[in-house]
Design goal:
This is AEC family transporter. With 303 residues, this protein is mainly α. It is 78% helix and 0% strand.
């Protein structure tokens, strides 16, 4: 049912001929208003919730590092890509669409109790993965890494509306006071829009991308993203004895489709733009099958 909403958004744009300005406006509303409101509302009770096991960060980002290394090796040895292109290729294997897809899917499949662990991953996601990409790209270009690039990355993360929603909601929770009714009701209504609108908007956005070239590279990125990463994150979660809920959260997030930021990075560096766009489209379609399979396997394994 979740992917029907993505299909609806896709059809509205491709068949209904809705202009790009509509999806851009909706995307801005979801990213800057609806999702931050939902995350603020969830995190506003964080101090009263059961503690989130920080080992989920080790499981999720440990898998990101391992899969990134594998992706970079495949890119250089299998497809003969240079260091910058290989870095963006490897990023495609680990950068999940955890905002527009991960949050609503986690909410529906795992329930609202899954959102604090999701939020914890989101807080560090951009900082860690952009730093990893920056180090890889700068090393490929210059053979070194500058602290200036890391500082710019950190500032960008702190200005992100989602991070602002998470951190401000967490800060409010430690005041041990309920939200005023005047704020609580509008937040509740806006938060209820976040999941369905995210999925419809994602479908509308995907309709603007075209599959052009580099299909072998695209399919390889999909394999890294939808098979190797969830497999790796599950293995680390098992090795670290991560609790069931957090284990399901990190595997679910690891199994999400390739995020749009990979395509944006391919445009920025003018490398593998075709494979980046195609992998984003293909992985979103394939994830409609692979993510439920991963969740089913975890249930069968006793999680």
């Amino acid at each position: 049912p979740l992917f029907i909403l993505i299909l609806l958004g896709y059809c509205l744009t491709r068949l209904g001929k809705w202009p790009a300005s509509i999806s851009e406006g909706m995307n801005r509303f979801v990213f800057n208003v609806a999702l931050p409101c939902m995350l603020f509302r969830v995190m506003s009770t964080f101090s009263q919730s059961p503690p989130v096991d920080a080992r989920l960060l080790l499981a999720f980002f440990g898998s990101c590092l391992l899969v990134f290394i594998v992706g970079r090796l495949l890119a250089t040895r299998l497809f003969n890509l240079d260091g910058v292109a290989a870095s963006v290729f490897a990023l495609g294997g680990i950068f999940s669409n955890n905002v527009m897809l991960g949050i609503p899917v986690a909410t529906v499949l795992l329930g609202p109790e899954a959102l604090p662990p999701v939020a914890l991953v989101l807080v560090f996601n951009s900082l860690i993965l952009w730093t990893l990409l920056t180090v890889s790209v700068e090393w490929a270009k210059q053979g070194s890494f500058s602290l200036e690039g890391l500082w710019r990355t950190l500032l960008g993360v702190l200005k992100n509306p989602l991070i602002i929603g998470i951190l401000s909601g967490t800060a409010w929770s430690f005041l041990q006071r309920p939200l005023p009714l005047l704020a609580a009701e509008p937040l509740k209504m806006l938060a209820s829009l976040a999941a369905p609108l995210s999925l419809v908007t994602l479908g509308m956005s995907l309709a603007h991308y075209r599959v052009r070239d580099g299909l072998k590279e695209s399919y390889t990125i999909c394999l890294l993203k939808l098979v190797l990463q969830p497999m790796t994150v599950w293995a680390i979660a098992w090795l670290t004895d991560l609790p069931p809920l957090e284990s399901k959260v990190v595997v679910l997030l690891g199994s999400m489709a390739v995020g749009v930021n990979v395509y944006l990075m391919s445009q920025k560096f003018n490398v593998i733009t075709g494979p980046a766009a195609a992998s984003m489209l293909f992985s979103t379609v394939f994830a409609a099958v692979t993510t439920p399979i991963w969740m089913m396997l975890m249930t069968l394994a006793g999680y």
